[in-house]
Amino acid sequence: MPDKTKDTGKDKTDKKLLDPRDATICESTAQMLEKARRDGVEIAFDRASTMKACPIGADSACCKHCSMGPCRLNAKDPYSKVGVCGATIDTIMARNFARMVASGASAHTDHGMSMLDVFRDVVDGKIPDYQVKDVIKLEAVARSVGIEIEGKDQKEIAKELYKELERTYTQVDGEIPFMKRVPKKTLETWRKQGIVPRGAMREIMELMHRTHMGVDQHYENITRQCSRTALSDGWGGSMVATEISDILYGTPVPVAADVNMGVLKENMVNIIVHGHEPNLFESMLESVNEPTLVEAAKAAGADGINLVGMCCSGAEMMSRHGIPHAGNFMSTEAVLVTGAVDAMAVDVQCIKQGLAKVAECYGTYLFTTNPRCHIEGAQHLEFHEHSPKETTDEIVIQSISRFKNRKMPIDIPQIINTGIHGFSHEYINYMLGGSFRGSYTPLNENIINGRIRGVAGIVGCTNPRVKHDYAHVELVKELIKNDVLVLQTGCSQISLAKAGLLTPEASHLAGPGLREVCEAVGMPPVLGMGSCVDNSRILIAAAEMVNEGGLGESIADLPAAGAAPEWMSEKAISIGHYFVASGVYTVFGVTFPIVEETKFHELLFNGLEQQGLGKWGFSPDPKEMARMMIAHIDKKRKELGIDKAREGFLMDLADRREFA
Ligand code: NFS
Ligand code: SF4
Fold first, then answer.
1. Residue 106's pLDDT band (cuts 50, 70, 90)
2. How many independent structural domains does the chain possess?
3. Which of 14-23, 33-42, 472-481 has the lowest mean pLDDT?
4. CB 607: neighbour CB atoms within 10 A?
5. What is the CB-side half-sphere exposure of residue 90 using CA atoms within 13 A?
6. Which of the four pLDDT bands, split at 50, 70 and 90, describes residue 129?
7. Cβ(312) to ligand 1 under 6 A?
8. Which ligand is closest in space to the CA of residue 493?
9. 3-class SS string, 615-659
10. CB of residue 330 inside a 6 A radius of ligand 1
11. Atom 7 in ligand 1: residue holding the nearest Cα
12. Which of 129, 366, 463, 531 is most exposed, with minimal Cβ within 10 Å?
């Protein structure tokens, strides 16, 4: 093992380093963190404990939008100072927040645009390797944006759909196509506020302009454009990414899949794909099944090739094909410490630069594949959708050579958690309604009669500033115990999968009402819906619940809430804000980039709700977070006049118990 201590200049036995079991509740990750320290290799957990977060930045009380600054304001006394240009704390915080939304929305939107590029070339016959796999979905999406499909062939419909969805990005005026899916009253509120997105590129551009030095200097006006941009992500870029992925690669249906580091196999060539766009991964799936490559692996002494996912494209591949998943964001470096990974191929987003060094230490080949993401020290092998297998075959070939020349001892934590994943909003509809009367009626009925108290979307990242996976698991346990049905995506879904909650058996942890529904349908109390762009599935489910009737007229009326208890990325802020703008009470953990007792804080945490939207909430404590969300759900039940039904249900239950 090379001695990396000298490179970083850090004492690896530093007393300040966290005990691995305080850093994470994921046993595999803890074991690998221990091993990394033994091996003298540094990963993000240790960097987080030795690098203190800047307190001024954490409060968003600084600005570096021009060279008269950077200006630092006083978070303790926020109105005591202004920037050199005179910018107030509210302007500075609103601008910083808005730029996080612009960046996060750009990530999802650019991802969606890549999917749309592929879709266009597939439809035009320029990419023979891919086809439209889900024609039913193609037709459903086309109908949902008002395309007449009667008498048209598949190709015609697809071409029209492409043209229509392109407007999501390039349109300069009007409303983006998926506004047709928004409940009427929610859309009316947005129109009144002037926050209906025209086109994602335009909204992001305008937001960047307005947050430039000396432009928009009213936090309320900045927040309006911030909402408009976030909505162009949730109901635009992200939704396009999800829908086109389903059309090209198939809409997920429930599938059993293995999660955790035990999915790596010592006697196989292990390839991890880590990233966000499904194209690379789909092509890799073809390559690892290529008979000549499988033969080559066997000739090198392996039992075969083992393809495994991580992070969001991993969550998509798990949902669509049951591909095993090795772990979430905070396990991506740790998994390399096993020494068992022959290659890791990455595309875009949430790829820690630290991977390059860890990969080097363990002799793992790290490949970047997307023109948007190169990493110093990684090998760049660009992936082209027009000849996808060229790149992925090459990655497999190099992985086999790494397998043959493995030098490191291998240590794989033998932990696997099997769960059920792949609950698309279409499937929830079908599952609850039955194949002949697929609808959201049963879900709404169970909410109205009080068996299900409400619905929560628990999503988002993991973050080494807090105990990895802990807040996700504690929050979800608390919610289901209180009869709240949980929908999940992204890294959060993986946290809960590792905790064993994505199984029908986990319904014994649910409250009596939710348990009854889960047992009747045979579903887990926690439904995994895929990657972070698949949060758009949660928006669609929410819209369908409103349109079904009985739970109010807008998304803001639903007994629902959202949370990202261990968030870290700007994408998470964009997601949070589009949920808030859509009408959802959304609670974040870890930290919130804002100074309390300021006008901007009041607007995000209260004012937006007065305007008919949702609102932000914050608590680092998962139990408190659950309490806040349940209180909100109960408030909404009361406003809908269905609070008594739940009391009735619980009383019946007590009777039934008594006479049982
Ligand atoms: Ni979402 Fe997916 Fe994970 Fe956070 Fe990153 S992988 S897009 S941003 S860390 S949930
Ligand atoms: Fe300072 Fe204003 Fe420049 Fe920001 S824009 S750095 S607050 S002078």
1. very high
2. 3
3. 14-23
4. 16
5. 17
6. confident
7. yes
8. 1
9. EEEECCCHHHHHHHHHHHHHHHHHHHCCHHHHHHHHHHHHHHHHH
10. no
11. 532
12. 129
436 and 493 inside one domain: yes
Ligand 1 in reach of 113 Cβ (< 6 A): no
Of 280, 495, 315, 496, whose CA–CA distance to 393 is shortest? Answer: 280
Do 308 and 376 sit in the same domain of this protein? yes
Round the CA-based radius of gyration of the chain to a whole number and report it.
Answer: 24
- Specify the pTM: 0.95
* Residue 66 included in any domain: no
Q: Which ligand is nearest to the CA of 533?
A: 1
Do 139 and 235 belong to one domain? Answer: yes
Nearest ligand to the CA of 90 is 2
Give the residue numbers spanning the domain of 279: 255-404
* Protein residue closest via CA to atom 5 of ligand 1: 350
Which atom of ligand 1 sits closest to the CA of residue 490? 10
543-582 confidence digits (pLDDT tens): 999 999 999 999 999 999 999 999 999 999 999 999 999 9
**Pairing between β-strand 62-63 and β-strand 615-618 as defined by DSSP bridges:** unpaired
Domain containing residue 200: CATH number: 1.20.1270.30
Residue nearest atom 6 in ligand 2 by C-alpha distance: 69
Residue 103 CA to ligand 2 center (angstroms) comes to 20
What pLDDT, in 10s, does the model give residues 574-603? Answer: 999 999 999 999 999 999 999 999 999 999
CB under 6 Å to ligand 2: residues?
63-66, 68-71, 83-85, 87, 92, 213
Is the C-beta atom of 346 inside 6 A of ligand 1?
no
169 shares its domain with 300: no
pLDDT (0 to 100) of residue 15: 55
- 49 CB neighbour count, 10 Å cutoff: 16
